[in-house]
Amino acid sequence: MALMITHECINCDVCEPECPNEAISLGPEVYVIDPARCTECVGHFDEPQCALLCPVSCIPVNPAHVESREALWQKYLRLRTINLQN
């Protein structure tokens, strides 16, 4: 599963620098999470750092991007390989 940021976001900028996959960026109104890069911190941490640190708890699971833990692990490995090649 990828996470998403809801419109309750206050643009505090706490989440973006904590994302190990650089999946979070500033959107037109609030921060957004790229589901192709979000692994819910699988491979890096035991729990998603953005959701853990969010002061307004506006980062739920994105129901449009449901993935198993194994799928998240495979995405992490794919992203890691891409990063090592660059």
TrEMBL record:
<keyword id="KW-0479">Metal-binding</keyword>
<feature type="domain" description="4Fe-4S ferredoxin-type">
    <location>
        <begin position="1"/>
        <end position="29"/>
    </location>
</feature>
<keyword id="KW-0004">4Fe-4S</keyword>
<keyword id="KW-0408">Iron</keyword>
<dbReference type="GO" id="GO:0005737">
    <property type="term" value="C:cytoplasm"/>
</dbReference>
<dbReference type="InterPro" id="IPR047927">
    <property type="entry name" value="YfhL-like"/>
</dbReference>
<dbReference type="GO" id="GO:0051539">
    <property type="term" value="F:4 iron, 4 sulfur cluster binding"/>
</dbReference>
<dbReference type="InterPro" id="IPR017900">
    <property type="entry name" value="4Fe4S_Fe_S_CS"/>
</dbReference>
<keyword id="KW-0813">Transport</keyword>
<keyword id="KW-0411">Iron-sulfur</keyword>
<protein>
    <submittedName>
        <fullName>4Fe-4S binding protein</fullName>
    </submittedName>
</protein>
<dbReference type="Pfam" id="PF00037">
    <property type="entry name" value="Fer4"/>
</dbReference>
<keyword id="KW-0249">Electron transport</keyword>
<dbReference type="GO" id="GO:0046872">
    <property type="term" value="F:metal ion binding"/>
</dbReference>
<dbReference type="InterPro" id="IPR017896">
    <property type="entry name" value="4Fe4S_Fe-S-bd"/>
</dbReference>
<dbReference type="InterPro" id="IPR050157">
    <property type="entry name" value="PSI_iron-sulfur_center"/>
</dbReference>
